[in-house]
């Protein structure tokens, strides 16, 4: 990949141009998050030796990849409110677009997940079970899309909240408290509202201002330090133990809330570098939607073909992630080339 340094002033346009690269990195982290081979839950110890080398490595990647979802919500809010003025006409236009880009793919891919559950797990509960599965997204990790649908429906309300800083702060603090107490679930749009409000308030002037601050060496080093601290903090997330424990729950909430801020160093670096967008980076949405059944399939084939050896689980971890992403991209390219109408629907007419 050719990287050429530039000294131009960066802003919202550069962020838009960088989105395929950011989406590629984030979708890869999502695959990492679901590719673990061992139980990576917290065992009341922060000593890596207590987990063993393989589990410790997988646990770190699992924890660090928690950053993908909040950044996705942050960027999604920025994209939505960049062109939304609160008018009825714009709202209707946005809803029509979101029907094809979110609702239709959500139903199709969850149906694929339900079929996967029928084939591999023997699940079949009839029409009602199928509809509940679609609503709960319990066969595919697509709840993110479901919550984006809710955010889109609530756009007029969110638009009015984000226009007043004090109201955004009050709503965010209230929801953070409810989330910490376990009254708002992780897979609820209310849990992600604070991050979403942050993204919705990201205007072109604010992006330019942050980039100007980045030009100062002291600020750049400070942002780098924040990112390094964030990367180290990922290890200390008590994953699997946050339910019913307010302190642990708050740690997770705080980690996710600061994700866009901590990653601002990476985002601005990508914006400032002339990185050519590769074709495989344009299939991030499809990778996100299809990675779960592909992981299941690749893991099944891998376990049948590759004998166990010392460190084989760690080897499997990285091989399955790599093959999953590659196969998703190959499938996407095949659909795009040979079944274009089907591809457009699956990809949300993107």
From TrEMBL:
Membrane topology: Multi-pass membrane protein
Main localization, broad class: membrane
UniProt keyword annotations, A-Z: Acyltransferase, Cell membrane, Membrane, Transferase, Transmembrane, Transmembrane helix
Annotated transmembrane regions: 12-32, 60-81, 102-120, 140-158, 165-183, 219-237, 257-273, 285-302, 314-335
Domain Acyltransferase per the UniProt entry, residue ranges: 24-333
Keyword field contains Lyase: no
Subcellular location: Cell membrane
Annotated GO CC locations: plasma membrane
BP term (GO), one: enterobacterial common antigen biosynthetic process
Family: Belongs to the acyltransferase 3 family.
Record-given protein name: Acyltransferase
């Amino acid at each position: 990949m050719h990287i050429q340094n530039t000294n131009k002033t960066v802003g919202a346009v550069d962020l838009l141009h960088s989105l395929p690269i950011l989406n590629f990195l984030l979708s890869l982290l999502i695959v990492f998050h679901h590719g673990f081979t061992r139980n990576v839950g917290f065992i009341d110890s922060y000593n890596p030796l207590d987990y063993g080398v393989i589990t410790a490595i997988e646990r770190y990647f699992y924890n660090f990849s928690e950053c993908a979802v909040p950044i996705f919500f942050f960027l999604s809010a920025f994209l939505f409110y960049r062109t939304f003025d609160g008018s009825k006409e714009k709202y209707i236009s946005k809803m029509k677009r979101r029907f094809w880009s979110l609702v239709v793919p959500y139903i199709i891919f969850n149906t694929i997940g339900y079929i996967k559950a029928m084939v591999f797990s023997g699940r079949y509960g009839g029409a009602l079970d199928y509809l509940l599965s679609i609503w709960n997204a319990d066969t595919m990790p697509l709840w993110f899309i479901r919550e984006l649908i809710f955010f889109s429906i609530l756009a007029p309300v969110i638009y009015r909240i984000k226009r007043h800083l004090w109201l955004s702060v009050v709503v965010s603090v209230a929801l953070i408290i409810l989330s910490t107490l376990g009254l708002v679930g992780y897979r609820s749009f209310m849990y992600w509202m604070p991050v979403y409000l942050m993204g919705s308030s990201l205007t072109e002037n604010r992006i330019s201002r942050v980039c100007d601050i980045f030009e100062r060496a002291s600020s750049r080093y400070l942002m780098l330090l924040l990112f390094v601290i964030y990367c180290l903090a990922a290890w200390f997330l008590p994953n699997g133990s946050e339910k019913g424990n307010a302190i642990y729950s708050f740690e997770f909430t705080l980690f996710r809330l600061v994700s866009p801020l901590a990653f601002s160093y990476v985002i601005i670096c990508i914006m400032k570098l002339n990185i050519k967008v590769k074709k495989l980076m344009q299939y991030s949405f499809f990778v996100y939607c299809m990675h779960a059944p592909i992981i299941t399939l690749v893991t099944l084939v891998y376990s049948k073909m590759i004998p166990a050896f010392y460190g084989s689980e760690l080897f499997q971890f990285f091989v399955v992630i790599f093959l999953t992403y590659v196969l998703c991209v190959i499938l996407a390219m095949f659909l795009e080339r040979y079944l274009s109408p089907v591809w457009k629907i699956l990809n949300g007419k993107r």
